[in-house]
Amino acid sequence: MQTTLAKSVAFSGVGLHSGAPVEMHVHPAPAGHGIVFRRTDVTGVNPRVPALWDKVPNATLCTLIENEDGVQVSTIEHLMAALVGAGIHNALIELNAGEVPILDGSSAPFVAAFCEAGLRQLAGELRAIRILKPVEVRNGAAVARLEPAASLEIDFRIDFTDAAIGQQSKRLKMANGAFVRELMDSRTFCRLADVDAMQEHGLALGGTFENAVVVDGDKVLSPGGLRHADEPVRHKMLDALGDLALAGAPILGRYRGNRAGHAMTNNLLRSLFERPDAWCWETCSPAQAYSLPGAGVCRAEVMVSA
Predict the structure, then answer these.
(1) Residue among 212, 226, 249 at smallest CA distance from 80
(2) Which of 255, 250, 253 is nearest to 284 (CA)?
(3) Rounded distance, CA 271 to CA 256, Å?
(4) Catalytic residue among 17, 89, 235, 262, which?
(5) How does pLDDT run across 123-180, given as a tens digit for each residue?
(6) Which of 24, 31, 83, 101 has a CA-to-CA distance to 18 between 20 and 30 Å?
(7) 89 in catalytic set
(8) Alpha-carbon gap, residue 28 to 34, rounded angstroms
């Protein structure tokens, strides 16, 4: 069955790119509502923006959604991954600025708060998107692909010239709390050489060494170093899970990413939904529901990991 939060949860912080302070509340919502953002600082136009793939006009350094009135919410990917990883299908997210707070640069604070609040089951069947045929998009050496599999799997590879990152790969079946154990605490990362360029273009204004992993050649500049030896590829998988959530329903299939980012994953979803022969709706059986990323999440395990 579909789920929502048992009670509202509040977060405060700054936007990674805007640097602006933001207050955000994630509220319970009814079955069939899905994930919807609402800008409380917007008046005179529709302040609601559904978290869906066809609402993404730009996904260069983060995932941004926009409604028909031009109201935007950006950097939603870590929050979306947390909702999926905690098994939440319906929520109304109210915020008083245009960007989700970055917190520590991972999904862990979101997941911990959701598990503390608890979930409530709703009287609505859960439908998933079954991948029937491979769908792939390419951009030079970068590739993003969806292909048939019994449940959601993510297989990701990255290749950076900085020795602190280098070549990394990881593959996970996203079931039985794998997101909590393996991915949720992995932070966003960037190269020191890119920071000045981003800030000159009005980006990364809220970035710090505490909410992002910053590398320079073979050095990790953020205090405490990496949380995992392969934290960068784990974070890419976290991003992919959050971006795939914009499909609007759980995906039963395998995602393969090679040097892929937000824009490629969104283009992959667009290509998928242009191919009605490549997917179908499927009502989740209890066994299928238990294979979803948010199933089997242990609250005690989340609190320790977070």
Answers:
(1) 249
(2) 250
(3) 15
(4) 262
(5) 999 999 999 999 999 999 999 999 999 999 999 999 999 999 999 999 999 998 899 9
(6) 83
(7) no
(8) 10
